[in-house]
């Protein structure tokens, strides 16, 4: 990376302000990502995926029993 040459303190101040704002934005993105990861480990989230599998299994069991009775 080629170092930037500044001609005034205003340019330096502007770039510093932009860098501070970018740092804040990056920090907030990191916080949101951490919250999403935590939410993924909540019991309701973990069971949500298992619940779908259990529902499909139960439906197949019920349908199998119905077919046996009809057949």
From TrEMBL:
Stored Pfam families: DUF6327
InterPro entries referenced in this protein's UniProt entry, alphabetically: DUF6327
Taxonomic superkingdom: Bacteria
Protein name: Glutaminyl-tRNA synthetase
Organism: Pseudozobellia thermophila
């Amino acid at each position: 990376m080629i170092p930037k040459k500044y001609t005034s303190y205003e340019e330096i101040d502007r770039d510093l302000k932009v860098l501070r704002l970018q740092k804040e934005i990056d920090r907030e993105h990191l916080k949101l990502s951490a919250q999403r990861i935590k939410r993924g480990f909540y019991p309701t989230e973990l069971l949500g995926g298992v619940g779908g599998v259990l529902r499909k299994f139960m439906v197949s069991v019920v349908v199998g029993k119905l077919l046996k009775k009809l057949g």
